[in-house]
């Protein structure tokens, strides 16, 4: 008998999608089928691609988990990661694994990895492009002009909150005090002092930023990186992105290029930032990494040695977004008051998570905050309205 997929791992049940009405269930039952349709609508796919998408839809709704075809990209790794899951319902295996494998299978269905005319065509590119052309990004970039007039501490705060709320895919770094004020109460843990202390303490600092979404999230992330380099908090930055499309809008190298171009094409201060970031890449002050583990269905506690060595050298690693948070602390139903430090003790250096809450996992809350959140009766864990800046020195 395979071990139950949600058997407690170090004390807390692993999240699966078995419970109807749960968040994880709704992602598999509603979101994934809808996504197949959206991708189908966005491209003039061939009959073969439509058939493959039909087969995937059938598999995720009424079927069982099937392995990748022999010889497919990453087949061996997925066979290993999926041991004990093939032949079972998508709903009963770990949520993190099921979601990750869904995205890998979607790429398979549209021929992303196969030699031919559709190789390398990002099925999410139309959505990413539309966002970059949209008014929210234009407003975010225009708001940069006001930033220069703020006192240095306020600039630090605005750039950091921009990167944080960019994960909600709105707000960005619009810095009018009203908006920052309005969201301040929803920041339920704020360890940001750790970030400034850590980065202010060394003249040769490397900061790693493990990116999440492209567009209105990656743009403020890049602006944060520029700010850290510009203010001397960091002398070297390493941006970790995905080696291939993942979780709809996760940033790939192509997205970094598109976002840099979008920043540099904007008027005013944004253009200067775009130019500086380009120079930083050209001089090696900003490196981009696309490690295969970034798309693995595993917690960071299981990261390979080369990635570990990379993080080990960093003065500080910044983890962006919900998925990275799940992988950082483990995608399990931890009591919300579990210590963030305990959950990240394995990490090879100081780490800070900037995350809006978009799934059930949460640690590091104090009992009072938790009680107040529970008393609201709102879906505060999953609605993206609340956020944390959680660090481990
Ligand atoms: O883009 P983010 O912040 O990583 O959020 C991704 C989140 O979205 C979902 O895929 C679906 O809402 C979550 O399961 C996941 O954690």
UniProtKB/TrEMBL annotation:
Domain of life: Bacteria
Essential cofactor(s): Mn(2+)
Domain Damage-control phosphatase ARMT1-like metal-binding positions: 28-366
Keyword Aminoacyl-tRNA synthetase found: no
Record field: catalytic activity: beta-D-fructose 1-phosphate + H2O = D-fructose + phosphate; beta-D-fructose 6-phosphate = dihydroxyacetone + D-glyceraldehyde 3-phosphate
Keywords attached to this entry: Hydrolase, Manganese, Metal-binding
Region forming the signal peptide: none
One Pfam match: ARMT1-like_dom
Similarity comment: family membership: Belongs to the damage-control phosphatase family. Sugar phosphate phosphatase III subfamily.
Name of the protein described by the UniProt record: Damage-control phosphatase ARMT1 family protein
